[in-house]
Amino acid sequence: LRELVSRLHQRGVQVFLVSGGFQSIVEHVALQLNIPTANVFANRLKFYFNGEKYAGFDETQPTAESGGKGKVISHLKEQFHFKKVVMIGDGATDMEACPPGDCFIGFGGNVVRKQVKEKAKWYITHFDELLKELEE
Fold first, then answer.
1. What is the mean pLDDT of residues 44-73?
2. Lowest mean pLDDT among 1-5, 10-14, 57-61, 67-71
3. Where are the alpha helices (DSSP H) in 40-127?
4. Contact 56, 135 (CB under 8 A)
5. pLDDT, averaged across the chain
6. Range list of β-strands (E), 12-121
7. Is 12 exposed, middle or buried (0-12, 13-18, 19+ CB in 10 A)?
8. What SS3 state is found at 28?
9. Does position 67 have pLDDT exceeding 70, yes or no?
C-alpha cells in the first residue's frame, strides 16, 4: 500500500482515506502513508470534559451515517472538480459509494467478503496488481 500511494503521489494523484473507522486511528495510518490528515474522512469519538469518559461519536460526520462514504466522494468531486474518483475497499459500504465514485476496486487482501468479490468488476488481493497496472 505504501508503494501504491507513493506512486500515485508521484503522478500528482490526490489520495484520501474514507473510513467508517475512527479518525484517531485512520489519521495514524495516513501519516504512515504520507497522506495529509486533511484528506482523512472518518468518525470522531467524543469524550466528556474530563477527557476520560467516552461520550459517543460525532453524528455530524458524513461517515457516521448510511451512504456517508458516497456523500464524502460527492463533496470531494465538487470541491476539487475531479473528473474521476476511484474507490478501493473491502466492504459493501465502499462498493455502495460508486456512484458517485466512478470506479470501484474490490480488495480482498485482509478479508474476502463474498458480496464484494462477486459484485466488484475488478477484484484484487494484493496492491502489486495495481502497481503493475500503473506501470503500463
1. 68
2. 57-61
3. 68-80, 92-95, 114-119
4. no
5. 83
6. 17-22, 40-43, 45-47, 54-57, 86-89, 103-107
7. exposed
8. helix
9. yes
Contacts of 58 (CB under 8 A, 6+ apart): 43, 44, 45, 46, 64
DSSP assignment, residue 89?
A: E
Q: List the grid coordinates of 100.
A: 458517485
pLDDT confidence tier of residue 80, bands split at 50, 70 and 90: very high
| Domains contained in the chain, CATH given | 1-62 (3.40.50.1000), 65-128 (3.40.50.1000)
Angle at 37 between CA 109 and CA 111, to 5 degrees: 15
Residues 83-121 pLDDT 10s: 899 998 988 888 888 899 898 999 998 888 998 998 888
Q: Are 42 and 23 in contact (CB under 8 A)?
A: yes
SS3 86: strand
What are the φ and ψ backbone dihedral angles of 116, each rounded to 5 degrees?
A: -70, -45
